[in-house]
Records
---
Amino acid sequence: MAFTYLDNNAGAGLAEGVLDAMLPYLQQQQGNPSSSHRFGRFAHSALDKARQQVANLVNADPSQVIFTSGGTEANNQAIAGVAELFHDGKVLVSAIEHPAMLEPAQRLTRHGFEFELIPVNPAGIVEADTLTDMIDDTTRLVSVMWANNETGVIQDIPTLASICKQKGVPFLCDAVQAAGKLELDFNASGVDMMTLSAHKFGGPKGIGALIVSPDLEWPSYILGGGQEDDKRSGTENVAAIVGFGAAAEYVTSHLAEYQQHCQQLREALEKRLHDIPGVTIFAEQSQRLPNTVFFALQGFDSDTMLMALDKQGFAVSSGSACGTGRQTPSHVLKAMEIDDLTALGAVRVSFSLQNTVEQVEQLATALAKEAERFNHLMNR
Ligand SMILES: Cc1ncc(COP(=O)(O)O)c(C=O)c1O
């Protein structure tokens, strides 16, 4: 049986050339980038190159890129700065953030801060007026993600960032799902801090970055040997960083092709979904990532559907990877006022350049058969 991987928002495979770029740093190039001998200098220059490649991906300056162990650490580092800089006040976090943002922000309440969720409208969008009304003199940080990992909904980040700029509040953006899928311009966006994760777009797992605007002084979170310009201590994971850089360069030069290809797959799947009775496609009218389709089939719970599809060789997800296995409706769908019964049936399909229209047609046929089988049972 052929297996079809359609869960690229949880983790995409390594992009072309990434493994080859990494291998020397796992084998003969064992130098520590902090060492001054030639092996150290060689490793250090590999970091410099990767930093430039990652900066190019999002139009930032390499000096603004701080490598971290992934998106989760980058989000935690950004949030932890609030407790370091202030004694009180509040943080505003969109209701649809990944738990890697929500949980550290909520943790601030233990240190005397208030934590408020910024609601989204039923289309999954943070409205500018809502954010404007929520910011006051005690707001220390605002956090809104660029694109949602479940629905794929894209926010109007430059507008939200400019509201924060006017009010003098730092704006943090989790761009983990947007990077490599959309054209991002850190410098033009007005964002003060942005977080990235390599494994979402063709780099290895366990490496990411926090990008900080030069206008913002933000404290370090992990202290020690002073690596990363004293902004994130710990010996750098050179091979992973090199892989991150190589993946960033690959997706930068393949972005148009990726978008066109994924959009074609998305349209093919959605066209077929429309023919299946009882299907809801979430946020269908919103601007979404080209590679993401989030939908529910009436009468199914997502775990049953995931298992039925797994048996037929399709790997899909019920939403955020960390939420898999939990039988609670997605907080993202709840924030969009989707009823619990529909939300419990949510299935996410996320494509990559490796997927084909044929695979999408096969998946749609499998879904249609499951729906037919279910209707047949119900009508017996
Ligand atoms: C939007 C978003 N933010 C953060 C993360 C966490 O990133 P990482 O897996 O690199 O820790 C994820 C992972 O699913 C994500 O989708």
---
Amino acid sequence: MNFAWDDDELNPEQSAAVIQNGNVFLIACPGSGKTRTLTYKIAYELSKITTHRDFVLAITYTNRAADEIRERVEDMGVDASQLWIGTIHSFCLEWIIKPYYIYEPDLAQGYSLIDLYDREKLLEELCLPYKLLKVTFHDCDFYFTPDGLHLACKNGSKVNAVKVVLTEYFKYLKKHRLIDFELILWYAFDILKNNQIAAKNLAGIFRNILVDEYQDTKELQYEIVSYILRKSSATNFFIVGDPNQAIYDSLGGYPIGLDDLKIKTGLDFHQMELSKNYRSSERVVSYFGNFNLYKTNIEACGKDKGYQSIVSYDREVSKDKLVLEIARIVKHNIVELAIVPRQICIIAPWWVHLASMCRKLSAELPEYTFDGPGMVPFARDVENIWYKISRIALTEPSPGMYIRRMRWAKEILVDFENLGMHLDNFNNKDFLRTCNSIKLDEHDGISYLRDFFAALIAEMSIDLECYPTLMQHHQTFFESSEKRVAQLAKEGIAEASDIKYFRKLFENRTGITVSTIHGVKGAEFDAVIAYGLLEGMVPHFSDANGQESAQKMLYVVASRARKNLFLISEVGRKRYGNEFYGPTRKLIDCNFRYDNF
Ligand SMILES: Nc1ncnc2c1ncn2[C@@H]1O[C@H](COP(=O)(O)OP(=O)(O)OP(=O)(O)O)[C@@H](O)[C@H]1O
């Protein structure tokens, strides 16, 4: 029987998208339940599968989104064993590179994935000769298109140095048979381009391919999916996103137009739309409508629709008073407006401004906690096996965590087997049982993890020396974690070394979120406070398409708010010489009756 739902679960637009046969191109405005629609669509298509050979493939932007959707599908009582859901990188590794790497000359002799920490370290070293030009690994972002390499760096004085650094970087990777995230896409694309059988096999497995957040998808990713789709007339494609929220332009992401998509895939599409915003008040919706580049339809219809929102814009506060002003706004929301701390988010464009803001706010408002970037005390590299084990080591067995921990255990055992370990009948339940039996009385987070891993290896009789990859992952995991803990301690967060702080990462968030604009993608909060809205930051000074990018960033920021929105262009931030940053031009141009706050 097909999976069914009630009227109060999906609105008519969402239901129509879920049950639509064939290929769907779905444009969804902010807060319109894109994730909900995608989840039901997956559940619906899974329930229609009649043979064990068919799979549903869903590609999400983050591992976290993949986990959430999978868990929701399982909670709905739908069998998810024929669902593969994950990021495009995981998909390429598991389904294209692992089975077909021998067809790729650069990979045929074997390859391994460079750890994120090692990658950063390598690039930092290669940048050293260009210290005077202030070239750092942050300048070394790049991406590939079918025509080859593109640099994210648009700074004329650095570009040549970055090119040399990257040439050395690729040489090093090749010599050591390493690949990074961008190379995963490149090689997957190359394999499909040169190997008809690979694309055909994949097309035979997946009856449905679903892509979330298409607006931030890169050309190579569209190409990879298109190779598969062109090999099968029986595979349906469902692609959803919001072109107004495309903020990864500098890394090669773009919202493909329908005509282009038709040409690439050779398919026809039902063009559909989700236009009902369940998130924000009418006032917030009318505000972010000012930045609606593609003129998509949006109608507020959630439970907070009639909320008397505050939408304010401050262009006067000085940089030196910023912390006090943000603290005042936070307190007002919590004390006067009864908004809970975890429903507040503080956003700035640049990561560098957030760590110090987080620290200063923690000192100013000691009664609240702040969850910010750079606050994670250990290496969160999802491809590192020891990170995967740490997820189990740092969470407690409980009914609520059971399914998730079982899945993590399974992933670890698959990794172990891929390393050549013979696990006989040792299954994921046994693995969890072994982990749960490890009891340690250790308060230092890093020592705890070291002891935990040692106990686990001993219990499973694993000889680390026999598995170089495991040893290498072990070394980089701890090197990177020690560096992070030291950095946090330097910034005044001494408790970061405590095991309780480590465990917090996996608990439900209770503190005030502090995030970059890019990091807040997909999230929603009752109150949003955004600062650093300055021309040169929003948009970035090197952005060739700056005004359009600023418009999209403002659209993303403002559409995260359910109830209240506070925008700040502080004065007094030095640019260079005697020059100061001024407010974001798109904000100055926006004609809106802000509230005095
Ligand atoms: N049919 C519905 N009825 C009531 N609430 C809904 C419905 N669909 C979605 N919602 C709620 O609307 C909110 C926004 O949904 P979701 O986060 O999926 O939006 P989104 O489209 O992904 O937004 P964005 O693109 O801005 O990230 C969520 O709180 C969700 O539970």
